[in-house]
């Protein structure tokens, strides 16, 4: 059965660069782009018997309808999927657009308990150090990342890699811990094409705003944050899995 590595996320999250690193050459255009993303249609590349898929972001206002169609097409390719959602961590704040993308995409798949992974990419050194201590700040970020209606313990943090930082069409050997997460730890699911509905963007802006309010509440209300963490604690082996897959990476 075909193995699909599908990367989903908004402009500037590093999807294309990450795929270029995984395949060891520049197959998708990547780099700094002002006002939108460089990917504006569904792209795929086969490497070592796996298909790597790049898609545009739903938060790109000019391309949102094209992005929705591209993601739907990617999900209907048939096979065993690893779903990777890119989430930004900006000054310790999770971006609501990224969580809205997760919810919107997963809503389009008519299946229960869809496993997926989250990649927090390009984490600045100070933030990354705090995450790897796995203390209060780490668990707060985990709670924020899981603020939408879908949750996952499969999260990896990738520090800013100097060789890739703000470079165009660059690639490098990824740290071993990142490769292990992407190839081995990240869960997979078989998705039949008929299970995938057209992605609906009618309420996307409203969802972004609602999630922004929810994130603000979790950041400022300790009781709300505690309830969120307690909810995750009720999920079987959530934190056991989380702590097993989150390992420190040596930035190069």
Automatic annotation (TrEMBL):
Coiled coil: 201-235
Lineage of the species this protein comes from: Eukaryota, Sar, Stramenopiles, Oomycota, Peronosporomycetes
InterPro entries recorded: GTP-bd (IPR006073), P-loop_NTPase (IPR027417)
GO terms for MF: GTP binding
Source organism, top-level taxon: Eukaryota
Keyword tRNA-binding: no
Keyword Ion transport: no
Positions of the G domain: 6-121
Keywords noted in UniProt: Coiled coil
Protein name stated in the entry: G domain-containing protein
